[in-house]
Every structure is written in C-alpha cells, then in structure tokens.
Amino acid sequence: MTQTADRLANEFPPVTRQDWLALVEGVLKGQSFDRRLVRATADGIPVQPLYTADNAGPAVGPLIGARDIDRPWDLRAAIAHPSPTEAARQALQDLENGAASLLVRIDPTGVRGVAMADRSDLAATLSGVLLDLAPVALDAGFLGPHAADWLGELGKRSPQAPLAFHMDPLSAFAETGTSPGPIESHMILAAETGVRWTAPYARASLFLATGRVVHEAGGSEGQELGFALAATVAYAKALVRAGLPVSEAFQRIVLGVSVDATYFNGIAKLRALRLLWGKLTTACGVTATARIEARSSARMLSTLDPWVNLLRLTAAGFAAGVGGADAVVLAPFTEPLGRPTDFARRQARNTQLVLMEEANLGRVADPAAGAWYLETLTDQMARAGWAAFQAIEATGGIIPALQQGQLQKSVAEVRQQRQQDTATRKTGLIGVTEFPILTDAPVELDGVDVSAFARPSPRVQLPGPAGRAEPLPPWRAAEAFEDLRDRARTQSTPPVALLATLGTPRDHAARVGFSQNALAAGGLSVAVQPAAAITTAEQPVAVLCGTDEAYVAEGEAAARALKAAGVRRLLVAGRPSNQDALRASGVDGFIYAGADLVQILAQCLEACA
Length: 609
Fold this sequence. Notes:
By secondary structure, this protein is an alpha/beta fold. 45% of the residues lie in helices and 12% in strands.
C-alpha cells in the first residue's frame, strides 16, 4: 500500500511551502498573512495555519511511554458533599461505577467541600473505602497538615497504600492573598508533617505542586507552568530541610495542571510540563519520574446553557488523556450552578470511561509525538514556562514573587486581554456569545443546606504575623455575559429589541441574524420589522439592518424616523462609510464583529429598564 501511494505521489511535481504561500496570497488579495492566518497564544506564541518539516520546531517527543490499554490513567472522582455520610455514599458509588481513586475536598464550613473537624469525620467520609486499592488524594488548603495526619492515621493498616496528601499551602496563599501566620511557617509545618509519614507509607506523595491557581485566575499556559515549577522547587527545598534526601523529595511531589476546552493547548501544556520536570530534576542532579494530576478548568464553564459544559469537559478530558496525565479529575457539568446530583456525577465519570474504553486513548504512547504543530507548540510552551519560572526564581522564589506582586500583575494583564477577547467575541463561547438560547433549559441540582453540616475548624493559625500578598482570585470567562443575562431576567418587562430592516430579505438577512445572536447574548429577544413601516416603536432599543449601500442611501432618513417613533437607543449593524452622518441623524452606536459587546449590551439593557 505504501509503495502504491509513493508511486502515485511521484506522478505529481514536488510542492514547496513557497508554492503554497503563493496560492494563499492570491486568496488573501493583499491582506496580511500574519494578521489573517496566524494567531497567538496568551504567551505570544505564534500558531501557524500550516506546519511542515521546514517550519516546525525541534522534536521533543516521545515524552509518554506505553500505558495500560484499558486504564491509561487514573480516573479520579472529586468528593465535596458537605455531609460526611453522603460523601461516603458518593465515594463508594463512584468507585463501584468506574472511578479508580478519590479526591476529597475538605472545608469545615461545608461550602467548598466535606465539612470536617477531626479524624472521625474523614473516617466517616472514607467508610468502606479500601485505601490500599483506591488511592485517596486530599484538597484541604491550610488544613493540609491536619488532613494529612487524619489520613495517615486511618491508613496504618495499609502501609503500601498510595496516599496522596496533596499538601499545597502555596496555592491557598496565592488564591486568598493571606495566610494564618507566616506562609513560611506553613511550608515548614507541611514539610515536617509529610516527612513524618514517609516511613509508614513508602508510596505516598506529600505535596501537590500545581499552577492551577494561575490558570483559574486567567493566566497563560507559560505562567501556569512557571508557577508549578517554582512551587516544586519550594516544596523540594522544604522537604530537604525537614530531613529528606533531595532525590526522595522530588519523588514525593506530584505536579498539577488545569486542562480546558482548547485541547491542543492542553496537550502541549501537559507535554511541556513533563519536559520541564526533566530539565528541572536534571539540573538538581536527581532522577525522578513526573507524576501529573490534571483537573478540568473551572474557568471555561458557564451557568448559561450548562449542557454545553459537557462538551467542554469532554475536550478537557481528551487533552488530559492524549497529553499523558497520570490522574484526571473532571468536574460535573453543573459545577458553576451548584452541587451536582448523581446524574451530573455520573456524566463526569462516564466521560472519562468513554475516552478510555471507546475512544481508546491509551492505545498509542504519546499520540502527539511527531506532529509538527504539537511538537513545536510543546517546545515553545516549555520555553515560555521556563522563562516564567526563571523570572519567579530571580525574585528569590515563589513566596517573594507573590509578596512583591509582579506575578499577579502579569497574570492580571493576561486576564484583561482574555476579558477583552471574550467581550469582542474574538474568543467565542458556545451557548454564551455564540448561539445563545434565551429559553432556559434548567438542570437539576442538589439543594443541600450547607449550614446543617458546618463544623468548627481546627486551628490553623501559626505564631507570627499573617502572610500578605495580592490575591489571585478565580475568574470565569462567561461571567460578564452571565451578569448581563441576570440583569435582563430581573427587569420588570423582558427586554426586546426592534430590528428595523432596509431592503429585501436578501439584503438584510445576514445582519439580522448577526444582530439577533449578539443581542441574545445579553438576554434581549428581537422583533423584526421593515424600517419604512415603523411609525411608533414599542421597543426602546432598535438596530438598523441593511447593506452598506442602503445605509448611505436611506440610513440617515431611517435613523431620524426611528428616533421620532420613540426609539431611545439606536444602533446600526455594521461599520458603514457614513458613520458620522448616521450619528448626526440620531444613531447612538454600531454593532459589528470586534465591537465591545458587553458595553453595547449593558447600554441596551439600561435603555430597556
């Protein structure tokens, strides 16, 4: 077959990249190739429309070895119900239906996890769980050392249990901007607690070094990778000071990363993290295999049309699987709305099971290896991550970098650009800014009363002044449009905009469809009517829809007539050549691809109020 294909290929003249570029230039008709066809990641990495051996970067793979065909990664289920009893039921249900391990989130208030105050609460949560067969990971913030002791005491009969204490005071400090006592003291306490459990549990991991907090705050892939590496160094140093050899210190650290619906970036980011781990451990003179836990991004999820979250989570799971994560945590699709039901939890499990058992993602070792695009992106992302790591270390390490605020400032700059890209729909969000649905399709939630399970928190305050830094709070891309939709729902009368058309349907259909979609993103429905037939406008907002030629010929007169009919806010769909004249005739603004839709919709809702 290969010989036949080669023989057929030989019958055609060779084609070079220059030949392809010549054809592309003809299609672009003088437009800039870079502007039209080259996009950039949040780190400024250019992504070409086509990669060949001539323009690809260095090959870095394969980075992932052969994996178990049936279970290529650890399907990890998150447990966060405030009731330890209900959490235990959910844990067993997850394990009996496909999960291989658990991530137990701990919060004495019950708001963000299982309400726990002591070992007995954790014991109740893990009732029936065989710790030597089902690995248990913790997510406890500054309660990490307490939770590690509880879990260590519970598992004493299983010395080979692969426990994951997942202590991570740096993420808690970075997200909240404060620590109960000096953050350095929390690092020391966590390290000493972890070292105490190394002898009883030879397979236990102690720290989770993750850049998740940077990702959820809107940061770039490089910033996330740099944070994870800097946290790794800080935790390794703390463990060495607490008495562990440097080689074992690295072996007891798990890396963490977030994956979202941009699956190519996710694949490259995971591979880049593995590459950076190798560079870091080599520089430290140790040999240790990277272990990576990937969690689905909360930043990508939306409360609007939440069923679309299933697609986002599937793409994130695909990225984690192809990128070589050792453990994967996918959130229930209802997470932004509230606590999940058994149905939503089942979807989170089954998404991964389908990727494993039906998509067969484990059958190929490092599927991205050899792909010019992904190899190049992996290399460039690794370089961006290493540069971010070096910038952090140049300030003295992750703690000084957070305290000085430069890291937060750089993350804020990326987040602001993401907000702008979302507001202008340069980055589209299905169900939010693209194809929004005004009729709600409600999903069932678990309406548990959290206050009924709240517990007094164990003491986490350590001697000395509290640590302070600018926080890195979580952010979601859809938030601005969710706020607009909430505002529309609370208005006494559902907001409706009038689409006033010029010419025939063939002339205005495209701009009518564009305007309807854009207005729906802010919760406005539409009524369509020829501009010439409007004498009294029942709607306070109107959008004039027609061709640019019609705007020049009829637009000014139509604008004056619509204002006279009672329209308070008048927009024009498009960017015609006579904008100044239209404004002079009463037009308040223009709605087009690239306009700040959040601002436009806010003004429309204000006019409808």
